Amino acid sequence: MKKIYGTAAEALDGLLADGMLIAAGGFGLCGIPELLIQAIREAGTKDLTFASNNAGVDDFGIGLLLQTRQVRRMISSYVGENAEFMRQYLSGELELEFNPQGTLAERMRAGGAGIPGFYTKTGVGTVIAEGKEHKEFDGETYILERGIVADLSIVKAWKADETGNLVFRKTARNFNPPAAMCGKVCVCEVEEIVPVGSLEPDQIHLPGIYVHRLIQGKHEKRIEQRTTRAA
């Protein structure tokens, strides 16, 4: 089966549909599938739901899709550093389902592992728990969270071999593996594609069975924050 495509638009051909659920990897601006996001913007696909830790910033990442009003709903943990995200949410233009970060990562992983739901203590007694099933285990209260199965996953890795085995670089190994797992189809952009057998088995972070399409491209290296220290 062909896995390597020439461009992001080619890799997404036939996969996009209005109203679909997309799981996106990345944390802030680290390890985000920027080329695939740009291709979705250019395709004009709308009414999208994104399961992603956050929506990037105003002019980068999923923030680009907020600018064009292509996102209807976000399933996220963090909404800071994106003024347009906050504006659309506060004005009622954008639906938002808050998830604690660990819960969101586990919802993606569970969906990819075929687990329909799990119980967690995180969020008990808060607005996160409203409308969710509660159950006691050993005298402690837990809430039921559903696994996420996305129509499409878009992720970014450092290296891939030609069969889609992935290696993530340092903190880019954040939401990317669980996001990749939970998609019915997973498209991955990478900095380098190497021949089969080039990757040591113990170096592989995600097996190629989860990855359906690959592109190689050049990526912008953005830094979210600058810290300073007094002399």
Explain what you see:
This protein is α/β, with parallel strands linked by helices and 231 residues long. It contains 6 helices and 11 strands. Strands 1, 2, 3, 4, 8, 9, 10 and 11 form an 8-stranded mixed sheet that branches. The protein has a 3-stranded antiparallel sheet with strand order 5-7-6. The chain is globular and about 55 Å long.
Class by helix and strand content?
alpha/beta
Strand content: 25-35%
How many DSSP helices? 6
**Sheet having the most strands:** 8 strands, mixed
Spatial shape: globular
Total strand count, please? 11
Mean pLDDT over all positions: 93
Radius of gyration: 18 Å
Helix fraction? Answer: 10-25%
Distance between the termini: 58 Å
Secondary-structure element order, as H and E? HEHEHEHEHEEEEEHEE
- Poorly predicted regions: none
